[in-house]
Amino acid sequence: MRSALSFLSNALSRISGSAGAQTVSELLIDLSEYASLMTPSELTEAPPTCAASLVSPAVASQPLAEFNAQVTFDLKPCELYLLETGPAHTTQLTRKEGLQLYQTMQTLRRLELKADQLYKQKVVRGFCHLYDGQEACAAGIEAAISRSDHVITAYRAHGFTYTRGVSLKQIFTELTGRRGGVAKGKGGSMHMYAPHFYGGNGIVGAQVPLGAGIALACQYQGNQQVCVTLYGDGAANQGQVFEAFNMASLWKLPVIFVCENNRYGMGTPVERSAASTSYYTRGHFIPGIRVDGMDVLCVREATRFAADHCRAEKGPILMELQTYRYHGHSMSDPGISYRSREEILEVRSKSDPISLLRERMLSNNMASAEEFKEVDTMIRREVEEAAQFSCSDPEPPLSELCDHIYSNEPPMEVRGTHPWSKLRSIS
Amino acid sequence: MLFEFLIYRRTGVFDYTTFRTLGCAVTVRDALNQAMDEELERDERVFLMGEEVAQYDGAYKVSRGLWKKYGDKRIIDTPISEMGFAGIAVGSAMAGLRPICEFMTFNFSMQAIDQVINSAAKTYYMSAGLQSVPIVFRGPNGASAGVAAQHSQCFAAWYAHCPGLKVVSPWNSEDARGLLKAAIRDDNPVVFLENELMYGVPFEMSEESNSKDFVIPIGKAKIERQGTHVTLVSHSRYVGHCLDAAAVLAKEGIECEVINLRTIRPMDVDTIEGSVMKTNHLVTVEGGWPQFGVGAEICAKIMEGPAFNYLDAPVTRVTGVDIPMPYAKILEDNSVPQIKDIIFSVKKTLNV
Questions:
Q1: Is residue B2 very low, low, confident or very high in pLDDT (cuts 50, 70, 90)?
Q2: CA separation for the pair B240, B342 (Å, rounded)
Q3: Strands A422-425 and A412-415, how do they pair?
Q4: Helix or strand or coil: residue A152?
Q5: Distance between CA A127 and CA A344 in Å, rounded?
Q6: Per DSSP, what are the bridge partners of residue B222?
Q7: Strands A412-415 and A79-81
Q8: Which residues of B touch A183 (CB under 8 A)?
Q9: Per the omega criterion (within 30 degrees of 0), is the bond before A411 cis?
Q10: Which residues make Cβ contacts (< 8 Å) with residue A13, sequence separation at least 6?
Q11: Statement: residue A23 has pLDDT above 60
Q12: Nearest chain A Cα to B94, which residue?
């Protein structure tokens, strides 16, 4: 307790002592350190036996006698648009699923906080749009689809990059622009790809028609796969989004349009940019659901419902996930000029997706506090290792500067910065 | 005399040594149609989407008969939503299909240009080779007849500016057939610039072009006419103008070498350089505007290479007039290069 108090007082003195406004992110990092010291310990279990304490990347698969293997949870009902019935009002969560979801979300959280640090150390450059606060969206969606389904999103993409299978090492190394990055350092934060994950797209809204096109390919190939196509509250006003809605509906494409409404398009609150902020209704003729995007189980259940809708060839469906980002729009935005610190703290204390899941599992005797701590420690270590690697991996070789212009093409010459600079390009 | 002149224009066949005529002429429109038909048959991942391509048989009838043969799945009518359907086409290419995305004219591609450049052209590079985009964007480009400023722009220079794209500009039916097949089989985004005024023009086809696997390599120019005094480089419709000018100039003893670029990007500089090193004079001819255009790029490339030292005169560019396209016939006719402009420019370049 004493150490927690001293930590808090340190944080506060840092806040009050700094010359300029402390950025939200520094405050958050302090708070996250504080929070981890304040892990609730109301459930004093007997020290777990070997099986349960083996918290490895393959999370403990054998539930102990004293833990509940599976619990049914009530979910907040979703608001429906053009739908008679919606996602189920209850969901079953197994201990294993719960620990997996927790691990995924905590990894995303630590990943983003580490990216924040690296950016401030100037080893990550350019744009860096962080996802912390929105973890339940990526984790919940991935839990409801399979790897053979497809996902495409915008630039706040680190979360989905990880859930779609890219390793922490490859993500960090792409952020630091080294040769081990998933795109060999050529893409950066906004352009990471994986099988059935199409980035990472920098132009607001452009990914929405792309996602409808991926769904067209699914329909064309008759493979029963769906495409989850994400966009933000800001992008929801783009014309091409409505063009995609029209064609997806006309041709009954198996696309789940997902609006991640985090209340702010860069610095503009939704009330100032949208004539209608009921994003789940803005598909007009497309059925919609409004989902609590801070509750990973809600997101999971809603995505299951949406995927079933698409696989039953009923056409597209629109999911609005009401969520929140703790960071500003990007690393150059402190995130407090258009919203208050109080608001951020309130969301953090009442609706944090990771805390919500942990509380649920603890109060339903599905896991122990120690287990969660072990997971946290393991994730911290993994993230730290990956970040260290990303700082030491060499930069991409200049000889590869001009590679990957064309696919499946014999080697060719590319003009350099002056006529005597003749560079080589291979596919 | 006039009759002979007209025959030259219609057949466009000058190099009798390289191919024999078949006795039947094929219009550019039919050549494009046959090429698409064969590629649709060959590879079931290929499909066509665009406005009016299916039930209307194509705004310019280029896709006539295809919907009847292949149906709704392979030939898709889209609403008037260029940005949307171009994005959909690109997305489908990312997920394993091989779309042909038709723009009714390339003027409307400006609505969708973000998808062509940022989603299609750059993706293979940004992903370091993880994600390819095998797509063809095709449609009529450049001036037509009396359609005025918003419907007459040439986009060759705009698209050819961008790494990651291939830009192709066929002139005659053989070009159209071979280059479209090559474009469809190419694993990269290809901008395929047709010309509305050429659709109805028939050309003799070579025997080798009969084959279903006849492809013309992208990135290779063709010398349509051998010459010794001056090199004329052009693309699309103006290749015909150059050949016509060459015929007139030949009577005055000036032998023009006429190069049909066929591909704007990647441009076949070697063929141009080889020709310039032989003739010592270069005139470029295009329909687009002069500033930052195809001819401007050729000038720059020649200056940077070995052919510069062989020039006896600066390169001359013959281009469209630097104005939005007017409507009235007399104004429109004088907004694009005419044969007399090419002849005049050649003589000025040769100082005769």
A1: very low
A2: 11
A3: antiparallel
A4: strand
A5: 22
A6: B260
A7: unpaired
A8: 126-128, 130
A9: no
A10: none
A11: no
A12: A214
Tokens 């610095």 belong to residue: A267
B88/A247 Cβ within 8 A: yes
CA A78 to chain centre: 21
Question: How far is the C-alpha of B307 from the C-alpha of A358, rounded, in Å?
Answer: 73
Say if strands B222-225 and B256-260 run parallel, antiparallel, or are unpaired: antiparallel
Let me know how long chain B is.
Answer: 352
Q: Which of A46, A143, A138 is nearest to A99 (CA)?
A: A143
Residue B257 bears catalytic tag: no
Residue B118 CA to residue B95 CA, distance in Å, equals: 17
Alpha helices, H only, A145-238 = 158-163, 168-175, 207-221
Q: What beta strand segments (E) does A275-356 contain?
A: 288-292, 317-322
- Give per-residue pLDDT as tens, B191-234: 999 999 999 999 999 999 999 999 999 999 999 999 999 999 99
Q: B48 pairs with which residues across the strands? A: B75, B100
The beta strands (E) that lie in A262-327 are given as 264-265, 268-269, 288-292, 317-322
Secondary structure of residue B76 in the 3-state scheme: strand
Cβ(B73)–Cβ(A253) below 8 Å: no
Picking from A26-40, A144-158, A253-267, A294-308, which range would have the lowest pLDDT averaged per residue? A26-40
Q: Express as a percent the part of chain A with pLDDT over 70.
A: 85
Q: Beta strands A70-74 and A90-94: pairing type?
A: antiparallel
Using the predicted structure, report yes or no on whether residue B80 has a pLDDT greater than 70.
Answer: yes
Label the pairing between strands B222-225 and B75-77. Answer: unpaired
Contacts of A227 in chain B (CB under 8 A): 95
What is the rounded distance in angstroms from the CA atom of residue B53 to the CA atom of residue A255?
A: 24
Contact list, B132 vs chain A (CB under 8 Å): 407-408
pLDDT attached to residue A65: 72
The reported pLDDT for the residue numbered B19 is 40
Q: B282: closest CA among B220, B328, B345, B327? A: B345
Decide if A220 and B187 are in contact by the 8 Å CB cutoff.
Answer: no
Distances (CA, A) of A137 to A232, A303, B48, B234, B253: 12, 10, 36, 55, 76
* CB-based contact B89 A186, cutoff 8 Å: no
Q: Please state, in angstroms and as integers, the Cα–Cα distance from residue B110 to each residue in A35, A211, B81, B143, following that order.
A: 52, 21, 12, 16
| Known catalytic membership, residue B151 | yes
B118–A408 C-beta distance less than 8 A: no
Q: Identify how many contiguous H helices and E strands chain A contains and give both numbers.
A: 13, 12
Look up residue A134 and give its amino acid. Q
DSSP B308: G
Catalytic residue among B38, B39, B51, B82: B82
**Crossing angle between the packed helical segments A95-120 and A369-392, to the nearest 10 degrees:** 40
Please enumerate in sequence order all residues whose Cβ is within 8 A of that of A98, keeping only pairs 6 or more positions apart, or say none: A357, A360, A361, A366, A367
CB B285 within 8 A of CB B251: no
A333 and A23 in contact (C-beta within 8 Å)? no
Determine the residue among A155, A203, A216 to mutate to test chain B binding: the one whose Cβ has the most chain B Cβ atoms within 10 Å: A216
Residue A137 Cα to chain centre, angstroms: 6
Instruction: Give the distance from CA A312 to its chain's centroid.
Output: 27
- pLDDT of A18 > 70? The answer is no
Give B305-323 pLDDT, tens digit per residue: 999 999 999 999 999 999 9
- pLDDT, tens only, B250-287: 999 999 999 999 999 999 999 999 999 999 999 999 99
Q: What is the pLDDT of residue A66?
A: 86
Between B32 and A33, where is the model more confident?
B32
Tell me B91's DSSP state. H
Contacts with B188 from chain A: Cβ below 8 Å: 406-409
Report whether B135 contacts B101 (CB < 8 A).
yes
pTM of structure:
0.89
